[in-house]
Amino acid sequence: MPEEEEYFGKNGEPRKFDPSFKGPTHNRGCTDIVCCILFSIAILGYVAVGILAWSQGDPRKVIYPTDSRGQFCGQAGTKLENKRDLFYFNIMKCASPMVLLEFQCPTTQMCVEKCPEKFMTLVKAYTNRKGL
């Protein structure tokens, strides 16, 4: 019994049983109706955008990379069929916060068969490309 007294002394007195106690659910009501309506509107908006993207969009833009001219890399039946990789000439320009506003990296991009293993300039790349 002394252990019980010591325990209650540190943590306070235990509550006595009250048969009329209704608990935390007494006097409750709906308070989040506005949030529920706004959440439902947001979900419907996402569904509408998804339907619009599905019906009007071009899934190739997600699957295949595109160069600076808007041509798809690695697309069958085009002159870029064998060039599946996308090469960025200055990848550091893609680290700019402006990329988030424009949704496009501001550096020149080019479809290549294999990424170069050494430094290359834009002029040198286009002259090598014309020689192919």
Any overview of this molecule?
- It catalyses: choline(out) + n H(+)(in) = choline(in) + n H(+)(out); ethanolamine(out) + n H(+)(in) = ethanolamine(in) + n H(+)(out).
- Residues 1-20 are annotated as: Disordered.
- The structure is a single chain.
- The chain has 132 residues and is mostly helical.
- Among the domains are: 32-58; 64-117, no CATH class.
- The protein is built from 5 helices and 2 strands; from the N terminus they run H-H-H-E-H-E-H.
- The chain has helices spanning 2-11, 33-56, 60-63, 98-102, 122-130; strands spanning 85-88, 109-112.
- Strands 1-2 form a two-stranded antiparallel ribbon.
- The longest helix has 24 residues, at 33-56.
- The protein is elongated, with a radius of gyration of 32 Å.
- It starts with a helix and ends with a helix.
- The mean pLDDT is 79.
Please give a handful of descriptors for the protein shown.
elongated; antiport; cell membrane; 2 strands; Choline_transptr-like; 132 residues; two-stranded antiparallel sheet; mainly alpha; 39% helix; transmembrane helix
Give the secondary structure arrangement, pairings included.
Blueprint: H1 2-11, H2 33-56, H3 60-63, E1 85-88, H4 98-102, E2 109-112, H5 122-130
Antiparallel strand pairs: 1-2
Give the distance, in angstroms, between the N- and C-terminal Cα atoms.
95 Å
Mean pLDDT: 79
Shape: elongated
Biggest sheet, in brief? Answer: 2 strands, antiparallel
State the secondary-structure class: mainly alpha
Q: Tell me what portion of residues adopts beta-strand conformation.
A: 5-15%
Tell me the radius of gyration.
32 Å
